Amino acid sequence: MSTPRFLNAAPEHFEVWARLFRELGVDDPLPTAVAWLNTQGPDTFFAELDGEIVGYGYGQVLGASGYVRNVVVAPTARGRGLGRAIVLELGRRMAAAGCTSWQLNVKVDNEPALELYRSVGMRGDYRTWVVRIALDTPLALAPSPSAVAAHEPPAELDEQLEREFEVAPGLLARHRTRPGARVLAFEFEGRPTALAPFDPHFPGCFPFRLRDARAALGVLERLLELVPPGRPHLQLVIERDEAAARALLAAGARAVFEIQHMHGPLK
Ligand SMILES: CC(C)(COP(=O)(O)OP(=O)(O)OC[C@H]1O[C@@H](n2cnc3c(N)ncnc32)[C@H](O)[C@@H]1OP(=O)(O)O)[C@@H](O)C(=O)NCCC(=O)NCCS
């Protein structure tokens, strides 16, 4: 393989990005070109090979940890080392920005990607479930036994919430830069019980934390109210917490996919 050239994201890359993004096999709606450039552009680069853009990498620096969000190689350019070159370039940029570790999410059945990430020293730790709750299908959940209080904490409390709910430092601040994004926190029986960074674009929450399944109905009723008119579902990304995921699936949520979280050291 000739050496790829890495190009910073620019407005003219939107169409090629949209085409490559579809290779991830997720049916999330595409952002507008402007929203894409503002939210992902600064953390995205493209790989050009022989004058053609054939892949991209998107990764965020979250404190001391780098979060690899997307690695995509065009089908015609696969199997020649470009995927690894993009991953290593992401790692190089993250290490240069001070990261000492990196992490990512990958679908559990995406063998090429799992192999690729293992080959650069990452190991799996926990699983994540992406589920959707249809607005027209009531969930078979028991009413929460006491009131669930929802509030929208100010950005000054982000660090505290990230510690409390074991969310990567800096993730909430990043979340707040997305158009229309909100951060909801819930208390139940006097304790912090759920964290829901909501983005109307999906519409849904990444990540969604629910510590006590007894509060599920109260939490979800509030979140369902935030779904913009005309959108059919609420999407929740439930990291680590198999019990919460199984409770929602048993109550009628639909599994979109199951993903593996991986992490490793960065030198
Ligand atoms: C995953 C992906 C980025 C790999 O890109 P690629 O350019 O084909 O990868 P490379 O040629 O650099 O291969 C690097 C390593 O990945 C692994 N790999 C790549 N293709 C593989 C396959 N079909 N089966 C198993 N392992 C594979 C191998 O470990 C390989 O190392 P090796 O060649 O030394 O054996 C590419 O398949 C892709 O874009 N897939 C669709 C999007 C996607 O799923 N991205 C990851 C989401 S988290």
CATH topology descriptor of the largest domain = Aminopeptidase
- Radius of gyration, in Å, reads 19 Å
How many structural domains in the coordinates?
Answer: 2
How would a crystallographer describe the biggest sheet? Answer: 12 strands, mixed
- Uncertain stretches: none
What CATH first level of the largest domain would be assigned? Alpha Beta
Q: Termini distance?
A: 25 Å
* Helical coverage, percent range: 25-40%
The neighbouring-strand order within the major sheet is 1-2-3-4-5-12-6-11-10-9-8-7
Helices and strands: which structural class?
Answer: alpha+beta
Shape: globular
Based on the structure given, which CATH architecture of the largest domain is correct? Answer: 3-Layer(aba) Sandwich
The percentage of residues in β strands lies in 35-45%
Which small compounds were modeled alongside the protein? coenzyme A
Mean of residue pLDDT values: 96
Total helices: the number is: 8
